[in-house]
Amino acid sequence: MMQNLRLRHANLFYMQGSTMLVALMEHPVLVSASSSVKAIPTWKFTIPEESGSEKSRQSKCVYVFQREYATVDPAYVDFVGTDEATTCVGLSIRNRTSGMTSVSHMDSPNVVDIGLTQMLNSVFNENSDAELDVHLVGGFQDVSPQQAGGGSRCKGKLKGYSFPLCAKIVETLQSRGERFLLQTLHVLGHNTRWDSAGNACPIFNGFLVETSTGSIFPASFDKTSRCPDEIVRRTRLAACFEDTNLSGRLLEVYDTQTDRFIIAPFFWTEHLLYIASTGEKLSDSEILLSCSTSPFAEGPDFVDNERRLWGFLIENPDWRDMFPMEQPRVFERAESGFWIRQ
Fold it and tell me: Would the pTM count as exceeding 0.85?
């Protein structure tokens, strides 16, 4: 693994988040690391049918949706990852001593403070002094570099969505007492390409961490591997904005100690049902413009995912039907690696 960068380095310690982020983006060690990431082919992760190869079935993965996090034990899990990030950022923190690895899909500066505490509380075991490898992948240059790095005139959406989120993450990491080693900062300009129409888009929308080594790979997933309970977890993301108990927190769905997914009961309101009934009448372009922070950078299945979510809500207007007797939905991993509902 290449030389790393300590986030509590003396030259960085007194910088504010935005200034420190700009400095880190230009640091030669991190520029080189980002170039190395770009050279790695994207791993298209899919779960084969039962008739697939034995090697594929034995790869045990945990997938993290937007605003979720999961901390995995390498004794149980081979890979942990996320995708579908445009202005969001995927964050990986790995304990070098134990191999415990936490991955989150952060979508707002508002979840960074508590979210990092959630991740770190589950990464440490008896060794609280362990060094922690950190990787950030995602976000892109959704505004011009002049706007993103501007001074007092750079307010509100002029900074876009990616820059404030990245700045908040590096500032919060730097302010804490843990021993962070920043390995990858593949965000913003490093993660930006332009399509044929001149629109800025992310180079990578997701990544995987190999838990045994800590290596990261650009990755994309499909409907088979964004599991288990894909549509219910998408609904939980939509519903969480109306639940004050979840304000400022990452969503927790994976139990580290038992290698199970446990989706706790949650409710959806009449307001969300109204959004679903209204949304299903929109055209594809209207869905992109009204539902995305980056309408020209979304993946090809964004609109379909929104329509499936709304269809699910319309077909299941009462949340209790998904959680009989208000019990959680529990999924255990079979020997083959597939998730099975209990």
Answer: yes
